[in-house]
Amino acid sequence: MAPVTPEEALEAAFAAQPRERFLPPGQRAAAGRDGPLDIGHGQTNSQPRTVRAMLALLDVRPGQRVLDVGAGSGWTTALLAELVGPAGWVLGVERVPDLVAVAQENLAGAGVPRATVRLAEPGVLGAPHEGPYDRVLVSAMATRLPGRLVEQLAPRGVLVAPVAGVMTRVVLGARPGERSVSEHGTYRFVPLVTD
């Protein structure tokens, strides 16, 4: 049997975790629309095309440890859990308590025990005590590259985040201080709260 390509892995993840499962009841009929949808508390569920582009840039592999910053209602956390498979682990952090409860409930119904969403610690960006991570996904707009999240990456780790309107990919090298940064188009997101 041929190995699964990254594109096939993404297809399978989106099929296993349909967007409507992670939307408020009043928004589920719009799940197929390729646009952001309101999930309450000033937060949105990102448009599928954007989520797919970010996950492709993140290049998640089976068995990896992944941090999902701005987990919202848990959709990206569940997609990441599909990509890391049973040997991997995903931690989502979210700053809105009501959304954390919704995400936890959604993940419980999604059949991905290797993923969890918890409340972001005040004044802490990400979850440094759980790191390092092989991959970090940020689903909120930073004004500048979030160095505190880059610091939570393992060697050869990858971070994908919208920074000042531009989707940015950071890849660490094997040695301390080695990294490459690339830009991948313009996007709009809710702001990343860093304090």
From TrEMBL:
The keyword Methyltransferase applies. It is found in: Cytoplasm. Pfam families: PCMT (PF01135). The keyword Endoplasmic reticulum does not apply. Keywords: Cytoplasm, Methyltransferase, S-adenosyl-L-methionine, Transferase. GO terms for molecular function: protein-L-isoaspartate (D-aspartate) O-methyltransferase activity. Its main location: cytoplasm. It is an enzyme of class 2 (transferase). It comes from the Bacteria. One of its GO terms (cellular component) is cytoplasm. Residues 23-45 are annotated as: Disordered. One of its GO terms (biological process) is methylation. InterPro entries: PCMT, SAM-dependent_MTases_sf. Its EC number is 2.1.1.77. PANTHER family: PROTEIN-L-ISOASPARTATE O-METHYLTRANSFERASE, PROTEIN-L-ISOASPARTATE(D-ASPARTATE) O-METHYLTRANSFERASE. Belongs to the methyltransferase superfamily. L-isoaspartyl/D-aspartyl protein methyltransferase family. This is Protein-L-isoaspartate O-methyltransferase. It comes from Phycicoccus endophyticus.
